[in-house]
Specification:
With about 325 residues, this protein is an alpha+beta fold. It has 11 helices and 8 strands. The protein has 2 domains: about 200 residues, Alpha-Beta Plaits (2-Layer Sandwich), CATH 3.30.70; about 30 residues. The strands form 2 sheets. The chain has a 5-stranded antiparallel sheet, sandwiched between helices. It has a 3-stranded antiparallel sheet with strand order 1-6-7. A hairpin with a 3-residue loop joins strand 3 and strand 4.
């Protein structure tokens, strides 16, 4: 079975690497477009109140532009179910943004490792079967970290392309203390599920540990934005503070690329320990959820965390006594 793809975006690994390099260089940022029509709010589902429609493809006279091609691509979609399967919609994108933000704030760490698993390279065309293997792999990842007294933190997005077939982007935290063992174990875990030997283009792993922590934070968000490149291009964001509506691609600083027709049940997600239930239980509201768009991707979560920890320490220590409240 061949899945239709009329507009691809990146077509080869070299092109994907070039796109990623351009994102890291910061030269893929969509600014204002004078042809954008009046912004028409629509949709009122929970956890997606910020996302709104932004533009009409008919307003793009230059049909050769990327925006026009993307808009025309999505204009052919005539049902919510097909729309969900052909693009990354607002709620899962918000879930990823909020999950990573919560991970930074609650645990004081960053996602360090980007893994791409191209299941389609093994001849798998059943997306449910491929996603089931990914789920089993993530279950083994959780157990691997648990045996070392740690938790597994990750986000993932499934995509599809004519050249690579069904493939998965996985972004996770691997500490430097367990990195060598993880890099040795992970390919073997993939072999157990996908079969041995692995095709050369099935598995790609990139790990970066920057000495400058601010650079590590910046790299994490570059990778997150790369995972979100399949977002529906006409989505907009309503700022809950000002009421202003801007294109999501502008607020998130990315250039939308169709992620392909994905037929499995869940296109994107996060680990449960940073998921919506965990965030709600902690009462956490991210910068993205609060509409503080100017602070996105700046590492503000770490400054907030330092303030909270300092305040908690001050509350435990009684002024002038040296005694801690918990000791009384």
């Amino acid at each position: 079975m061949t899945y239709p793809m009329q507009y691809q975006g990146a077509g080869t690994w070299d092109e994907e690497n070039e796109l990623r390099a351009r994102m890291e260089a910061g030269d893929i940022v969509c600014g204002d477009d004078p042809r954008r029509p009046p912004l028409i709010p629509k949709g009122n589902g929970p956890y997606a109140q910020r996302f709104r429609a932004v533009y009409d493809p008919r307003l793009y006279a230059d049909t050769s532009s990327d925006d026009a091609k993307a808009a025309a691509y999505y204009a052919t979609i005539n049902s919510k179910e097909t729309e969900r399967r052909m693009s990354l919609l607002g709620p899962p994108a918000a879930n990823i943004m909020d999950g990573v933000s919560y991970f930074n704030f609650e645990y004081g760490k960053v996602l360090t490792t980007h893994i791409v698993l191209a299941s389609g390279q093994t001849g798998i065309v059943d997306h449910d079967k491929a996603s089931e293997r990914i789920w089993k792999l993530l279950h083994r990842v959780r157990k691997w970290f648990a045996r070392r007294g740690q938790e597994a933190f990750f986000v993932f997005v499934h995509e599809n392309s004519a050249r690579h077939g069904f493939h998965t982007h996985l972004l996770l935290h691997v500490g430097s203390d367990v990195l060598p063992k993880f890099m040795k174990w992970f390919p073997k875990a993939v072999e157990c599920l996908w079969g041995s030997p692995l095709p050369d283009n099935l598995l790609h792993i990139r790990h970066r540990h920057q000495r400058n922590f601010s650079h590590q934070i910046m790299l994490q968000w570059i990778w997150v934005r790369y995972l979100l490149k399949g977002i529906k291009p006409e989505l907009g964001l309503v700022n809950p503070i000002t009421g202003e509506v801007k294109p999501a691609r502008e607020v998130l600083r990315l250039r939308p690329r169709p992620g392909g027709l994905v037929l499995c049940r869940k296109r994107a997600g996060v680990s449960s320990n940073i998921g919506r239930r965990a965030r709600d239980k902690a009462g956490y509201r991210s910068l993205f959820d609060q509409g503080q768009d100017d602070l996105l991707f700046t590492g503000e979560e770490f400054r907030m965390r330092a303030e909270v920890l300092a305040r908690q320490e001050a509350e435990r220590m009684m002024p002038g006594t040296g005694f801690r409240l918990g000791d009384l």
